[in-house]
Amino acid sequence: MRRTARLLTGGALAVAAAGLVAAPAYGAGGLDVYPSSAVPGGQVTVNTDACGDSGTAQGDAAAVGAGSFTLAPSAHERDAFGQFRVPPSAQPGTYEIVATCAEGGRRVTGDLVVTLASHRQQTHPRGSVKTGVGGALGPDPVQTAAGVAALAVAAAGGTWLLHRRARGDGI
Predict the structure, then answer these.
(1) CA 25 from chain center: how many Å?
(2) Tens-digit pLDDT profile for residues 66-117
(3) Cys-Cys with 80: which of 3, 55, 58, 107 at CB 3.0–4.6 Å?
């Protein structure tokens, strides 16, 4: 039993270690697009750490119709960032944004999704919940009156029985 447990534990650790090695680190030379989903007329910021110490690059957002823009060194070490505005005429879809480093000519890409909705509208539930327990005013007034009458008879009968018991007449 212990041997099986050790084999399973060792196998799980090996799979986890392989997954960690294969996973790319954040900012490992790609182009980060923020927000990754924008609306026509919205402003988009891109940054990368792929351009080395110079930290400058030429951006290209022609795919979405925004043209070129410049990525300049930022306050973060080895990062370059730039901004562009999504044209009001942009159609919904996924567009590739490209940046070419000034030093070495390295090309990095990122995706921008253009949507028509600026944010998801929160919907609230409407109507009633059908639980089987109705309110005092149900859909049928005759049934409501019958229910009220049954409750009145039960209350009167209970009071009469309690009164008899208190007098000692028995039940």
Answers:
(1) 23
(2) 999 998 888 777 788 899 999 999 999 999 999 998 888 889 999 999 998 7
(3) 55
